[in-house]
Design brief:
Blueprint (H helix, E strand, L loop, with lengths): L5 H11 L12 H15 L12 E7 L3 E11 L2 E10 L6 E7 L18 H6 L4 H7 L3 E5 L14 E2 L2 E2 L5 H9 L4 H16 L5 E11 L1 H12 L5 E5 L29 H4 L8 E6 L7 H17 L6 E6 L7 H12 L3
Parallel strand pairs: 4-5, 4-8, 8-9, 9-10, 10-11
Antiparallel strand pairs: 1-2, 2-3, 3-5, 6-7
Length: 342
């Protein structure tokens, strides 16, 4: 029987590939981290040149149990980022702050629990109002609009020459590739610049910064924590899984891919760049696009790296009973336990 489909060839490669920079037992862990981070930096693509942040507060409003600050900052030339900072009214600041990253959705208003478009209510019902949840935990929350979503959505017409755009991230992600960049790298850059911008707000404690998100937001939570030491705890949801079992086997959005990454690392290997900082992996037992078997395999690799770092008590797996969503009731107590915040 002849083999015609690209998947036939790629399946062979997936079986043969052996990531060359995976941590080896007995290797100097600090030196491995340095080497691995340098390679990941390269794989994420060309980095922008820093420009002045130009933080601009647009408005402030009191809500039931928090004060909301809407502001913008400039991440790089041609890229302004809208944000909403939620500061608790109870307790005493400066507060720990959790950066909240929505996944593939209509925008950061989902993280704020504010439906705008058809289907938003269903999305929020999957525990995706992250920023509101974080404030209820006693933390400040930063809702950050990611590239390609919401207010930063592709502004071109929905069709071009009769070809319907498949996903909001499609054009931006592929353009990033031909420019020598990646959408993952661009979004990670925005998170780092958002942390810079938080220095403008004395209400938050810059020594206690967390990051969390579901699906595509979980993906960026993970890579941002790999690259950014100022993130003290990471909680990606429905996103941490072996490449082979997730984006290598299931149709995923273009913005999930980093060219060449599997030559050097499986996803579980990269968790060693977060160690020894706390790492909470959240997943759904019935998630069809980040299968539980692949999650457990990646988590086992991450656990071994945390053990090598002497931090085996700083990593936890939370498995919710359903599918591709967040699990607030199960996840936040683990976040609180590992962070030690309150």
């Amino acid at each position: 029987m002849p083999f015609f489909a690209p998947e036939d060839c790629h399946k062979v490669w997936f079986e043969k590939v052996s990531p060359s920079l995976a941590y080896k037992s007995g290797e100097d862990f600090a030196k491995w981290q340095q080497k691995a981070k340098a390679k990941l930096t390269e794989l994420l693509g060309d980095q922008p040149q820093p420009v002045p942040l130009n933080v601009r507060v647009e408005w402030e409003e009191d809500r039931d149990f928090y004060r909301e600050i809407r502001f913008l900052f400039t991440a790089e030339e041609g890229a302004d980022v809208p944000c909403h900072l939620l500061v608790p009214k109870s307790g005493e600041g400066p507060y720990p702050v959790v950066i909240c990253l929505q996944g593939h959705s209509t925008g950061m208003h989902i993280s704020l629990g504010r439906p705008k478009y058809p289907g938003d209510e269903e999305s929020i019902a999957g525990d995706r109002d992250f920023a509101v949840q974080a404030v209820k935990q006693g933390y400040a929350a930063l809702a950050l609009e990611q590239r390609c979503f919401g207010e930063r959505m592709d502004q071109r017409p929905e069709t071009a020459k009769g070809v319907t755009k498949i996903r909001r991230c499609f054009h931006g992600s592929l353009n990033a590739l031909i420019l020598g960049r990646t959408m993952v790298g661009e979004r990670v850059w925005d998170v780092s610049r958002a942390i810079d911008a938080l220095a403008e707000f004395p209400q938050v404690d810059l020594e206690r910064i967390g990051c969390m998100g579901n699906s595509g937001g979980g993906t960026i939570t993970f890579y941002a924590a790999c690259m950014e030491q100022r993130i003290k705890i990471a909680m990606p949801s429905c996103s941490f899984c072996t490449y082979k079992d997730s984006i290598g086997s299931v149709d995923h959005c273009e913005d999930q891919y980093i060219p060449g990454v599997l030559k050097y690392f499986e996803m579980g290997d990269l968790a060693g760049l977060i160690a020894p900082r706390p790492f909470v992996v959240v997943t759904g037992a019935q998630d069809p696009i980040f299968p539980l078997a692949g999650v457990k395999q990646a988590f086992a690799a991450a656990e071994a790296l945390y053990k090598a770092a002497g931090a085996e008590d700083k990593i936890k797996l939370v498995v919710g009973p359903e599918g591709h969503r967040f699990y607030a009731q199960q996840a936040w107590p683990v976040f609180r336990e590992l962070s030690g915040w309150f």
